[in-house]
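Section 5.1 Outputs to date
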Amino acid sequence: MNSLLRLTFMSSWRRIKEITRYKVNFALDTVMNFVWGLGILVFAAVIDPVKLQDSIGSTNYPLFLLIGVAFQAYTGASTYGAWEIHDELTKGQIEYTFASPVSRYFYILSHALSQAIIGTIFSLLPMFAIATLFLGLPSLWAMAMASISVTLTFLALCQIGVIISSTLLVLKNVSAIMSFFNFLQQIVTGMLVPVQFLPEPIKALAFVIPFTHGMDLARHFILGTATIWPVEVELGALVALLIVLSALAKLSTSYLERKAKREGLSLA
């Protein structure tokens, strides 16, 4: 665990140095995140509040959407390690990475954790600051329960990120898989449209995606919306998916370590 913390700290420090190197661009990006927070409020004018209330139990669509945007950011963070691994693969650095005396599983996870930290501080907090300014602050209990849901979901998604990274090193290019994964996250899980609006077969698919439960629970605790399935079922599903995906992620990195010893991992 100490090695994971050290790797995450070093990765976060490097990312902060990268994004703050160009001061004007960094300042404008930060301002734009506040502007996006204001822009999300505009969506309240285009959604039928009666239909929304009947479907999810809340008319607060701006915050409903903002939570979806936050989860999308964490989804991107969870697969950030795959892009870093791809960069190392194309530059011929991957062999040195796998020769280093650190856990390859922790190494990939550290990229995801650092990206989540950076995204939370510099992107999501400005948006939520605008939202709370206009819409108010939820209770501490609600924020604590929502945080638990977010954490479980992000950790489960990180395991998918590790699996995708491992697949990348075997297949060398997984852009199609990444596109399909992003499609599922955005269309099936209720990020933009409540799952309650979707057909039953798609709801069944949504149930086996961690993103669905985490976002649904976060919206429930923050907004008081009706959940798709009972709260205890969704929390149980998140824990079960985390356990299963963690086992698969560790198996994938173990396979890669054996493959690296036998034949290497370079593009050649």
